Amino acid sequence: MDAIVIKEPLVMDAVMKGHGRFMAAGLSSSALTALNMAALARLEKTGLPRRKHEMFTYADLTPLAFDTRNFALDTPHTEIDVTPFILAGCERSRIVLVNGVFTPDLSDISAVGSSVAVKRMVDGGGWEKEAGRLFESLEMENDPYAVMNMAFMRDLTQIDIAPGEALAAPLQIIYVSISSDGAFAIFPRISIRAGALSKSEIITTKATLSSGIFSSSVEEITAGEGASLRVSAIQAARGDYAGMTKTKIALAAKSNISHITVSTGGRILRNCVEARLAGTEAVFNSYGLSVLKGSEQAHFYLRVSHEAEDTESFQHFKNIVKDKSRASVDTTVIAQKGAVRAQSRQLVNNMILSGAALAAVKPNLMIFTDDVKCSHGATIGRLNNDQLFYIRARGVPEKEAKRALTMGFAGEIVDKIAVPSAALAARGAVMEKLEE
Q1: In sequence order, which residues have a C-beta less than 8 Å from that of residue 120 and are 6 or more positions away?
Q2: Domain boundary among 279, 310, 342
Q3: Which residues pair with 118 in a beta bridge?
Q4: How far is it, in rounded angstroms, from Cα 301 to Cα 289?
Q5: Rounded to whole angstroms, how far apart are CA atoms 233 and 116?
Q6: Residue 301 to residue 261: CA distance in whole angstroms
Q7: What's the pLDDT tens digit per position in 233-289?
């Protein structure tokens, strides 16, 4: 059958045909077939989002059109060189997924020894409980693209950090996307479980080796009691990349998670984060930066739920938009009943460098208890002419002065990345984008 080329946003007919190819190619393992079919049925019932969908208010989904024949891509790739994507300090602490599937031959975690264990669901052995949890997660899932992830899910990569361990090296997760015959769709899913009192730094990077990629990924992050975890995501993919990422975060008592995302473009990028501060004194910080040009898009959608006493959260996002690019930040903080003395702040800063660019902000607070401190704020502006004049008066050319001011605006988020090589990579990606 000839490929069907969709010339409008992804429609259910394309998904159903793609799923048929996925199943016919034997890509659904016995451990996941029932989940794949249940997720498809749920997706067919709920439908795919359109412009008026509450979770996609500011997103133009038109760029999600792609050739549906490659839903079932299974081209073997044994000659991949991931060396250019390995960060300094992560040479022997890296986990590589190729087209969404954990690839042991390209991975090496010898530097962290027994502190980290990596398992695949399809390898079997005691996964019945995990399968049940996935079905429960499906029943609660309201993000259509996360449901799609389950429909096309080929495996689950589980990463366990041992209790009480402070990792000897930062752990890098590299998502490799590669095809020999054109555009395709991938559906990675990982679960990171940080044991009680553990301490770790994790960096996720995209290695897009082919054009026209659509990715719908899900990351689940759980911090045990007293655990400290920082996750830095560098989304410096090819310009025609389209990525939907769902991150589900759960924090136990006295745990601390920082989540940083630096995005430098793509057809459309959307980061959906759901965080539950379920234990007392849990702390969650989320930071995001988008640097866009042309018709690129980047959207952040956050839901942070304070569910215990003395919890804290802080969200800080910055967007730099130029040409006809668009960015949005939609955040909601919920102080549930009983979450007394919860503290939360939301802040969004936007820099608009052209009249046609769009930066939208939608902060929300939902308070169901007393004795809390919650606030939100947003700014929208252009380059500061007084600052520009001050720098140029000291002999700095206009182009360099503008770049310095813009980089200074972005640097506040980039500097949250604690691993030097990762911060350097993120800063380099931002600088390269600003040079364009």
Answers
A1: 102, 155, 156, 157, 158
A2: 279
A3: 159
A4: 13
A5: 19
A6: 12
A7: 998 877 788 899 999 999 999 999 999 999 997 889 999 999 999 999 999 999 999
Contacts of 349 (CB under 8 A, 6+ apart): 316, 317, 318, 319, 378, 379, 409
Q: Which residues contact 99 (CB under 8 A, 6 or more apart)?
A: 73, 77, 176, 177, 178, 184, 186
**Counted domains in the chain:** 2
Same domain assignment for residues 390 and 272 = no
Q: State the Cα–Cα distance between residues 257 and 416, nearest whole angstrom.
A: 13
- Which residues have CB under 8 Å from 343's CB, separation 6+? 311, 312, 313, 372, 373, 374
Q: Decide: helix, strand or coil at residue 64.
A: helix
Q: Do residue 99 and residue 232 come from a single domain?
A: yes
Q: What is the DSSP string of 167-219?
A: -SS-EEEEEEE--SSS-EEE--EEEEEEPTT-EEEEEEEEEE-SSSEEEEEEE
Strand partners, 67: 5
Residue 198 within any structural domain of the chain: yes
Roughly how many angstroms between the first and final C-alpha of the chain, as a whole number? 41
Give the separation between CA 25 and CA 35, rounded to whole angstroms.
17
Report d(CA 282, CA 416) in Å as an integer: 19
Strands 101-102 and 94-98: antiparallel
Q: Give residue-wise pLDDT tens across range 285-324.
A: 999 999 999 999 999 999 999 999 999 999 999 999 999 9
Tokens of 30: 């016995």
Work out the percent of the chain whose per-residue pLDDT is above 90: 62
Q: What is the pLDDT of residues 189-223, one digit of tens each?
A: 999 999 999 999 999 999 888 888 889 999 999 99
Q: Range of 394's domain?
A: 384-436
What's the pTM value of the predicted model, to 2 decimals? 0.92
